[in-house]
Design a protein that fits this description.
By secondary structure, this protein is α/β, with parallel strands linked by helices. The chain folds into 4 domains: 56 residues, no CATH class; 113 residues, Nucleic acid-binding proteins (OB fold (Dihydrolipoamide Acetyltransferase, E2P)); 173 residues, P-loop containing nucleotide triphosphate hydrolases (Rossmann fold); 165 residues, Rossmann fold (3-Layer(aba) Sandwich), CATH 3.40.50.300. Helix content is 38%, strand content 19%. Strand 2 and strand 3 form a beta hairpin. Helix 8 crosses helix 10 and helix 10 packs across helix 11. The longest helix has 31 residues. The two termini are 33 Å apart. The relative contact order is 0.09.
Length: 715
């Protein structure tokens, strides 16, 4: 049959169930997907061996001529196979391919090939089993075979594998496609003028260079082109979204600045200049009549909740509604309690009702019985009051985006920790009529500028880079293996506990591993560490645990006890990473610190940056590698989370930091995002293109490619 880019991958050859499942895991469903499945590295065949020097067990590369091609089946299991003999001037070796008979059909008698694979022994004779084979124009002179001359082709691609699909299978599948020139059917999504402007190769050339590089320069240039393509498409999508949103109408909210100032005066602290600037950005957006789309990015403890409260007040003052969505029930309940504190002392307190909706229950403030507290109510009753506009402020988890939740006049949507929510989830909070709510995203995860420009390119950016007055920088200490080192930290913690302070101990896992099963994760568990600390290390203090497998009411009870100082040391997983606020907790110990990303470690230590008391973070690590140690030491030297984020982007990879799967960004795209110039060029070209052709009517292939990307990745 004739293959096309849209041909299902199953039609490339006969596939067994394991291979089909593996391709599904690798997200390869069509021929086009296979073309875009790039090598994760390249092997070097510059030092190819002669056949006489091969040794059993080695993975080696040999050049030679193909002889005695044959296909058949194994004697016992009737598995399809192909065989051949490879000859150079020093000898011969057998090649066997199991379940890959098509390879023999791709080769010709007498053809010169490069063979790379593991050497095994069969009946005391050396053989290659399922090696990678590539057509070669000649045999390198360094194999000791001057007969065929030399070649400069010294690189071969190595692909990420999955059980059932090998790098070799991917390589030979692509060679078949290239030999049939299927790649020439693909339309280049990037306009020719842009390629020429930045000296980038065409799609057809780049595909050959990325999969069959003749040199390192070939591979680099091809990967650069595809990196630009990915960032360009992201920018194009974001700019289209931004332009589309700008066409919508939203609530024009006239701010009563005098009333807002009176409200802010009730806060138990003074706002920083950064907080005031952020509030000003938001109220100016409110006044425009166009829907706001803004990201407020602030370090841990910089006071983003106060910014939210001040701007929510203005919306409530105009008798409009706000939806405030957060990622966890713990954080939702904490924000609910914080908002009660923000709103309880203003003259209109009895008129401002605040609702909480989570999977485990609903609450309303104030209670009819006691106006000072909140009361639990039925879900049906809360939904009724939200629908008729009686409750202007609704805080919740993803429960907020369920179909049963309907607002009367939703004017303002706030999402905390935006990187935990997808675009589609965000859109579900939008109104169904012609009025689009103002949208504010907030994150305490500092994001490098290039990543923010790429991922959140459809949002305006406000950075809160000041800490509240009186906050002292946290003291972070890396604690390497040794009982003495641990005991020193434990004694420091005892001194802190004697002063009336509290502490967190964070563990990477909940349970101890099954002793009957092998496990690579030999790190502290919440349950075992709680018992050890309670029984032997801190027997005079109250030690309790918290983790994600506990029931919601159990977690709530433990958090309440910790907030009320009924618990001195809370042993937990990273469930406390976001938003948990206990000002009296000033020490955090993180077990197995090397298991966490720098951004997550920074979030975790932010739990003890909630007061004017000196805070301490101790990173317990068993790592012995210099790279890991240097990475953890960056936490000690970085001035703030923004500097730390830039470090982690360069040395660990943004995919590990920020959840690339959610954004649909490949490893290649993530590498590109480290290049500020590339991001800015891609952004500029996307803006220029959409200005001339808003609906991409003159760029059909680009529009089609973008739609495919949105369908597969962004939803």
């Amino acid at each position: 049959m004739t293959l096309t880019p849209n041909t299902p991958i199953e039609q490339l050859g006969r596939l067994n169930e394991d291979q089909k499942k593996a391709l599904h895991r690798l997200k390869i469903s069509t021929i086009q997907d296979l073309f875009y499945y790039f090598p994760n590295r390249y092997g070097d065949t510059e030092n190819a061996l002669s056949i006489e020097t091969l040794l059993e067990g080695d993975t080696s590369t040999v050049y030679g001529q193909i002889e005695k091609l044959d296909t058949g089946k194994t004697h016992f299991s009737k598995v399809a196979k192909a065989t051949a003999r490879l000859r150079d001037e020093t000898g011969t070796i057998t090649i066997t391919w199991f379940r890959q008979p098509y390879i023999a059909r791709m080769l010709e008698e007498g053809s010169v090939v490069k063979v790379t694979g593991k050497i095994t022994a069969h009946n005391k004779k050396l053989t290659f089993v399922n090696p990678k084979v590539e057509q070669a124009t000649s045999i390198p002179t360094n194999t000791g075979n001057p007969l065929f001359g030399s070649t400069t082709h010294t690189l071969y691609p190595v692909y990420s594998e999955s059980k059932g699909i090998t790098s070799n299978w991917i390589y030979h599948g692509l060679q078949k496609l290239f030999s049939e020139e299927v790649h020439k059917q693909l339309e280049d999504p990037i306009p020719k003028a842009i390629l020429e402007k930045y000296n980038l190769p065409s799609l057809h050339t780049a595909l050959i260079w990325v999969h069959n590089p003749k040199s390192e320069d070939n591979a680099y240039t091809a990967r650069k082109r595809f990196a630009f393509q990915e960032v360009f498409l992201i920018q194009l999508k974001n700019q289209k979204e931004r332009n589309k949103n700008a066409q919508n109408q939203s609530f024009k909210i006239a701010i009563n600045e005098a009333r807002m100032k009176e409200f802010v005066k009730t806060f138990p602290f003074q706002l920083t200049k950064s907080q005031k600037d952020a509030i000003q950005d938001i109220i100016e957006d409110f006044a425009s009549g166009k829907p706001m789309s803004r990201l407020v990015e602030g370090d841990v403890g910089s006071g983003k909740t106060a910014i939210a409260a001040a701007t929510v007040f203005s919306v409530t003052d105009e008798h409009l509604q706000t939806a405030y969505m957060v990622p966890t029930e713990i954080l939702a309940k904490q924000h609910f309690e914080n908002f009660i504190q923000f709103f309880k002392d203003i003259p209109m307190a009895q008129q401002v009702k605040i609702g909480l909706i989570t999977g485990s229950g609903c609450y309303k403030y104030p209670s009819k019985v006691n106006g000072e507290i909140a009361t639990k109510i039925s879900r049906a009753q809360l939904l009724k009051w939200i629908a008729n506009g009686e409750i202007p402020i609704v805080i919740g988890t993803h429960s907020l985006i369920q179909k049963t939740v309907s607002f009367q006049n939703l004017a303002y949507v706030i999402i905390d920790e935006q990187h935990r929510f997808g675009t589609v989830q965000r859109q579900k909070l939008a109104r169904k009529d012609d009025m689009t709510p103002h949208f504010l995203s907030m994150t305490a995860t500092p994001i490098p500028r290039t990543l923010a420009l790429s991922i959140y390119g459809d949002l305006d950016l406000t950075i809160v880079d000041q800490m509240p007055t009186g906050r002292k920088p946290i003291k972070t200490e890396l604690v390497l293996p040794g009982e003495k080192n641990r005991n020193v930290v434990y004694e420091k913690l005892r001194e802190s506990l004697r002063k009336g302070r509290q502490a967190y101990v964070i563990c990477p896992r909940i349970n101890e591993p099954d002793p009957n099963k092998q496990t690579a994760l030999n790190v502290a568990s919440v349950k075992a560490e709680t018992k050890r600390l309670k029984d032997t290390v801190f027997p005079n203090w109250n030690v309790e645990m918290l983790h994600s497998k506990m029931k919601p009411d159990e977690k709530e009870k433990v958090m309440k006890q910790f907030e009320n100082h009924e618990i001195d040391i809370l042993v937990s997983t990273s469930v406390v990473e976001v938003g948990v606020n206990v000002p009296n907790a000033t020490t955090i110990i993180i077990e197995g610190a090397e298991r966490f990303g720098l951004s997550q470690l920074h979030q975790l230590r932010g739990r003890v940056l909630r007061s004017t008391h000196q805070a301490y973070a101790y990173l317990f690590s068993d790592t012995k590698t210099e790279t890991s140690i240097n990475r953890l030491k960056a936490l000690q030297s970085a001035k703030d989370g923004f500097e730390l984020a830039e470090y982690d982007l360069q040395f660990r990879g943004s995919g590990e930091l920020y959840g690339k799967k959610q954004w649909g960004i490949s490893d290649l795209g993530m590498e590109a995002i480290k290049n500020i110039k590339m991001v800015e060029f891609a952004r500029k070209e996307a803006q220029k293109l959409l200005k001339k052709d808003p609906e991409l009517e003159k760029h059909a292939s680009l529009r089609q490619f973008l739609e495919q990307k949105e369908e597969v990745h962004f939803e």
